[in-house]
Amino acid sequence: MGAPMVERLLNAGFKVTIYDTQPAALKALEAKGAAIAQSPKAVADAAATVLVSLPTPDIVLAVALGEAGLVHGKAVRTVIDLSTSGSQAARALAEGLAEHGIQSIDCPVSGGVTGAGKGTLALMISGPQASFDALQDVFTVLGKPVYVGEKPGMAQTMKVINNLISVTALSVTSELLVMGVKAGLDPDIMLRIINSGSGRSNASEDKIPRFVLTRSFDFGFAMGLSAKDVRLCHEESQQLGMQLRVGDAARRLLNDAHDKFGDDADLTEIIRYIEEGVGVEVRGKAAGPR
Predict the structure, then answer these.
(1) Strand partners for 78
(2) Residues in contact with 182: Cβ distance below 8 Å, sequence separation at least 6, in sequence order
(3) What distance in Å separates the CA atoms of residue 76 and residue 21, rounded to the nearest whole number?
(4) Quick one: which of 50, 181, 214, 227 has the most CB atoms within 10 Å?
């Protein structure tokens, strides 16, 4: 999701300096006007405001606080973490940055690669109100910012809640579509009815018709990353002393599918795990003949 966000910032007239461990990603953005840095520190030497979009909490902390990390940059004053890294990592990030006089802003996003390209991401933001107000020109280029609160980690908690809701909707809709096909129902007709009634969700309106009924399974979000996000939500519920009964059922299904298909499988392939256990396939007319 980082690449389309960089493109939007460039198109909005921002001067953008970037670093990534994948040279090919850097070259494509360099051709569109981005300056290339050789390390996170080099980015922080060039920019007062640094945005990070990274896969795991450990990587976020290493990039920000490590030996060649952002904290050693000469220009950086604010770090905006767009990753889904959980509240515990957010608090550690804020503390580590504060020791160097740098402000941390939690800004996890929801909306996928499509939303990143269109600038329609939901941005959940926590940090000082003054910083939220001052950075509106950045936030509104990326999507729709919503202020969650002052404390570090509040936006991260909101994000993992959102992600578990999303996975749960996908899981239960997938499971019941498989049940319907097993009973002889047409999946296209099933979705038309679900989306006309009270069972509709983002899963039934977008993910399943576009990426499951077509059998393309190219939604663009890896199952391994989703399993990480759901794990973070589970850990936070444990810290709060709360059992997530429905959420835990969705987590177990996702983990089983993840164990079978691996980190790089598309999240929408969760339905394949259910299908294989039942012996049917949820194939819409858009998929064409087998």
Answers:
(1) 49, 103
(2) 278, 279, 280
(3) 20
(4) 50
Helix, strand, or coil here: 220?
Answer: coil
- Non-local (6+) Cβ contacts of 150 within 8 A are 126, 127, 128, 129
Residue whose token pair is 């515990």: 88
Spatial separation of the C-alpha atoms in residues 167 and 178, rounded to whole Å: 16
Would residue 179 be called left, alpha or beta, if left means φ above 0 and alpha means ψ between -120 and 50 degrees?
Answer: alpha
**Length of the chain (residues):** 290
3-state SS class at 109: strand
**Enclosing H/E stretch for 249:** helix 245-261
Residue with tokens 């069972």: 199
Q: At what angle do helices 2-11 and 23-30 cross, to 10 degrees?
A: 20
Residues 6+ apart with CB under 8 A from 209: 191, 284, 286
Asked if residues 94 and 152 have their Cβ atoms less than 8 Å apart, the reply is: yes
64, 71 contact by CB (below 8 A): yes
Q: What is the pLDDT of residues 155-210, one digit of tens each?
A: 999 999 999 999 999 999 999 999 999 999 999 999 999 999 999 999 999 999 99
- Comparing CA positions, the residue from 115, 284, 279 lying closest to residue 212 is 284
Is the Cβ–Cβ distance between 237 and 230 less than 8 Å? Answer: no
> How many Cβ atoms are within 10 Å of 252's Cβ, its own excluded?
12
